[in-house]
Write a structure and sequence with these properties.
Blueprint: H1 23-45, H2 53-80, H3 84-105, H4 108-119, H5 128-143, H6 150-180, E1 182-185, H7 196-208, E2 214-217, H8 220-229, H9 233-244, H10 258-274, H11 280-285, H12 293-324, H13 336-348, H14 352-356, H15 361-376, E3 378-383, E4 393-399, E5 404-413, E6 423-428, E7 431-432, E8 438-439, E9 442-449, H16 462-479, H17 501-507, H18 513-517, H19 531-539, H20 545-564, H21 574-585, H22 601-604, H23 614-632, H24 637-646, H25 656-664, H26 671-676
Parallel strand pairs: 5-9
Antiparallel strand pairs: 1-2, 3-4, 4-5, 6-9, 7-8
Helix pairs in contact: 1-2, 1-3, 2-3, 3-6, 4-5, 6-10, 8-13, 12-20, 16-17, 17-23, 20-21, 24-25
């Protein structure tokens, strides 16, 4: 096979050359890498190859790490620079990459090698981290069906390949449906109440489309301000209906995610039965902290019982305000954000728009860096590398004496080629090689903030700031790892329901004035956020916290129940399950045409299937962890060092509960979460 050795995906230096990567590079790069990886698999599974870490595990990790980096970069570009050419190349290669990994996970000869390593005398000589890698691999082989009969193994393989394609289709449908809808306005009166900087953004979007007036899209920086501030109720209803029916039967049939969801649920049930599990939730929880679906459901319902009285109180207050002050005959779903913002302004005498003017993005970044530098004894400096878009910036983390620890990219503004939401992903993972050399980690930090307009920097809501801190927490977890083995370094091998703990931990700093004051620089005056205004924000911190909590519980219970039923796949009645959960948990009524599930990417296009509860589970851990800083001093370097030493740097090298107990000195308590949320 002839291979172009100038292919930027194959010529991997420390950093990928993103400016050189083209869709046409993907297939030949994967041709080469899959061939190389298969050759390594053949070599390490040969009966003459000794069953040792050095002869089996290490060469396999090296080869698979190279391939994973390339496919990860392609997936990353799909998330941030989706084009027809890239999408075609990605979808052409998705089946064979999926087939390769499924075949690998079911490779009986490789499974036998790992079992032989575990049974050998040499196993006891391995350190605890390497023993853990072996044990995890054996567990994962079993979960992939490696010890199934040939016919069932073939079924698992076919189901896995189809599931990967369906998840990608779900994501594409949602992005395309989001981009397909716009509202064009020519009369300024229809946009009454919407802040000036948002109107400027709408105007620039209209100009870019070659039309007069203003254009509103369904991307969150467009959608949310309209829902919060537009006095035009008909406009809010129009946007709301479009948003909650995305990728459903109410739009283009080719973008309808309903049949995709049904087939995904059916596949997950078939997979669980092949593995002799009662339901898919049991499969999912095999690699998580939680012991059983019942434990998760009991946890969610217990939290719901504590939060629902506060949620009902929140909603009754909102309804009364909407009727008495806003003169709304009935509080509709498209009124909720508008009425909530108006009520917050009345109760606490400030608006989100007023706050946004203080949180200019460059200053927020400086303040975030200042915090983590002081707390964890690191430095963050600007660096240079090839990037995929002009918005992207590149950074380096160093020790105080200048030794490089990690690098990361930031891509922060919304655009039509980028999927919604915010996330951290990794390009490369910390590893120590046999000769003592070190591979430093590299991360991607992606958000969807509003772009700078009219010559002014991007302005963030306080929620945006919290999102940034959250994702940077994931980044620190990945980048400050000290685990020498890549399989358990960073976020690798961390139980899924604990992986949110470091990210949610970082959110707490957004409620400390000394920290927040260093994040602010008024867009017009340059002033820092006045403490008086921060006190109002703090007083409003738990404004509608009950409503927010039960909303998250609604999502978590719904998706756990559709995955935890022993008898039913729920492929046909998933919407009925959601309706039943809403009746039990929710306090805000919805409308018949709401199709939330069709845009629930976390569980149908992400890794949170039977795992969305992780956000609340980890919130208990993170709130209790932050309470240690409250008790010992928010800027206590010893506490910061202990957090890094016992949690952040440990990756998946030991159980997350052991990490927590080593940091906190005891098991977690729900009390801090209830206190922080204003529920107790």
């Amino acid at each position: 096979m002839s291979v172009n050795l100038t292919n930027p995906l194959l010529c991997q230096g420390e950093f990928l050359d993103f400016t050189a990567i083209k869709p046409a590079d993907i297939t030949p790069a994967l041709d080469k890498l899959i061939e190389e990886a298969q050759a390594v698999v053949t070599r390490v599974t040969d009966e003459k190859t000794p069953a040792t870490w050095t002869d089996v595990v290490e060469p396999l990790e090296t080869s698979l790490g190279r391939m994973s980096r390339v496919w990860g970069a392609v997936g990353h570009l799909m998330g941030v620079m989706d084009t027809p050419e890239l999408r075609n190349a990605f979808n052409e290669n998705l089946p064979r990459v999926t087939q390769f990994y499924i075949a690998l996970s079911q490779n009986e000869a490789l499974f036998e090698k790992y079992k032989a390593i575990a049974a050998s005398d040499a196993f006891s000589a391995l350190d605890a981290i390497r023993q853990r890698v072996i044990n995890h691999e054996i567990r994962d082989f079993k979960l992939s069906g490696a010890d199934l009969p040939a016919d069932k193994k073939a079924q698992m393989k076919a189901l896995g390949e189809e599931a990967a394609q369906l998840s990608q289709a779900f994501s594409e449908h949602l992005l395309d449906a989001t981009n397909a809808f716009t509202v064009d306005v020519t009369d300024a009166r229809e946009l009454s109440g919407i802040p000036e900087d948002v109107l400027t953004m709408y105007s620039e979007q209209a100009k870019a489309a070659g039309i007069d007036g203003w254009r509103i899209t369904l991307q969150i920086p467009n959608y949310l301000p309209a829902m919060q501030y537009a006095t035009n109720r008909a406009l809010r209803e129009k946007l709301y209906r479009a948003y909650v029916t995305r990728a459903s039967e109410f739009g283009e049939s080719k973008l309808d995610n309903t049949p995709v969801i049904r087939r995904i649920l059916d596949i997950r049930r078939q997979e669980s039965l092949l593995l002799d599990k009662k339901n898919f939730a049991e499969v999912s929880l095999a690699t998580k902290m939680a012991d059983s679906p019942k434990q998760v459901i009991d946890f969610l319902k217990d939290l719901g019982s504590k939060a629902r009285p506060k949620a009902l109180e929140d909603y009754e207050e909102l309804k009364a305000f909407a009727k008495d002050v806003l003169k709304l005959d009935e509080l509709k779903p498209w009124d909720t954000a508008f009425a909530s913002e108006a009520l917050r302004i009345q109760k606490y005498a400030y608006s989100e728009q007023e706050v946004r003017k203080y949180f200019t993005l460059p200053t927020v970044f400086d303040g975030l860096f200042h915090l983590v530098e002081n707390l964890f004894d690191i430095k963050i400096v600007k660096d240079t590398a090839s990037v995929w878009h002009e918005d992207v910036q590149f950074w380096r983390i160093e020790t105080l004496d200048g030794k490089k620890i990690a690098n990361f990219y930031t891509d922060l503004y919304a655009r039509s080629t980028k999927r919604g939401g915010a996330w951290m992903d990794n390009d490369s993972t910390y590893k120590v090689f046999d000769d003592g050399s070190v591979r430093t980690p590299i991360a991607y930090l992606v958000c969807n903030f509003s772009r700078p307009v009219d010559g002014k920097p991007s302005m963030l809501s306080h929620d945006d700031v919290i999102t940034l801190f959250h994702e940077f927490g994931h980044g620190l977890h990945h980048m400050l790892s000290r685990v020498p083995v890549a399989q358990l370094s960073g976020i690798n091998g961390v139980e899924w329901d604990a992986v949110e703990m470091p990210s949610q931990f970082m959110e707490n700093w957004c409620w400390n004035y000394d920290t927040v004051s260093k994040l602010t620089h008024h867009v017009d005056t340059g002033d820092v956020l006045p403490e008086e205004l921060f006190d109002k924000m703090l007083a409003a911190k738990n404004f509608q916290s009950g409503m927010f909590c039960v909303r998250q519980l609604e999502f978590a219970l719904f998706e756990m129940l559709i995955h935890a039923d022993d008898a039913v796949s729920h492929a046909e009645d998933f919407e009925a399950v959601l309706d039943a959960v809403r009746k039990e948990v929710a306090v805000v009524p919805t409308v018949e045409y709401n199709r939330f599930a069709q845009s629930f990417s976390h569980i149908f296009a992400g890794g949170y299937a039977a795992g969305y509860y992780s956000y609340k589970w980890a919130e208990v851990l993170s709130a209790d962890a932050f309470a240690a800083f409250e008790e010992e001093g928010l800027t206590n370097k010893a506490t910061g060092k202990r957090w890094v030493d016992e949690v952040i740097s440990r990756g998946g090298s030991r159980d997350a509960m052991e990490n927590f107990k080593a940091f906190r000195g005891r098991e977690p308590s729900i009390d801090a979460l209830l206190r922080h949320s204003g529920i107790a």
